């Protein structure tokens, strides 16, 4: 070392040098150890962080799957609920047209459907039934739809057969029924997209039109007496014996005996017509009209809606008549046709399909 221009040398003993070297070595080893520990700790922490991140990602994926499943279940439940509403409204709207047990696919269905209704409630879709249970509910709904569609189609076919056998066109009857409609617009909601539900709705509409048309065909005896004193067509006139056309059937009976509407319809005339005396006419739609003549008493009013079998008057002998009887006519577009085929054609079919 240099001091005041004089260079001095310091001698360090070998022992001190070894001690210093040992101290430096120990410090280096300690630093290396600490550094190694820090590196190892960082590696362990990084691995743990990666594991946590992977676990969180797995949890997030699982939650997303659960949410997707819940949304899917909610969608299925909503569709089943909509189908159930549609079924109930359609069946309720045609309660008088379908058999009493039509809405059941087996004896236990009345209870099952109520249970199913609760199962598909949307109040808490996450707590609802699993996919397997939904599939069973859907299968029951589709089985019911198929059964009701077949019933409606079968009843429509029977009604069409009965209508054709009296010489009328079922298509015209159905068209007339669709024209005679009205009322406020109240949306019932869209029908399910499944083609089986669409076919069911159309089958019910067709059946309703045929049933309505069938109810307006005169096949109910207008008098309780089945004795016909004069038939339809040409005959010797009862007053002068000359050949004359008789436009209806004559039912002989006592004065005051009830006269019945031969079919459902609207009273279109009450009063006196030349030759007919006291007379009632009923419009049944589609150009079909029935006339009841020679009454002793008229028991209906213009515009009244009457059902088949309703009492509309009493037998008499007013007008051009030789004695108490009912003169009964069926007219299509004001052209007289023979009433006998209407009164005799497949009475069992008419009664079955009206009931």
TrEMBL record:
Keyword Transport assigned: no
Ranges where the M23ase beta-sheet core domain occurs: 245-339
Which superkingdom is the protein from? Bacteria
One Pfam family name is Peptidase_M23
Q: Which UniProt keywords apply?
A: Membrane, Transmembrane, Transmembrane helix
Concerning Gene3D superfamilies, the annotation shows: Glucose Permease (Domain IIA)
Name the residues that span the membrane: 20-45
* Chain segments annotated as coiled-coil in the UniProt record: none
Family annotation (PANTHER family): MUREIN HYDROLASE ACTIVATOR ENVC (PTHR21666:SF270), PEPTIDASE-RELATED (PTHR21666)
Q: What name has this protein been given in UniProt?
A: M23 family metallopeptidase
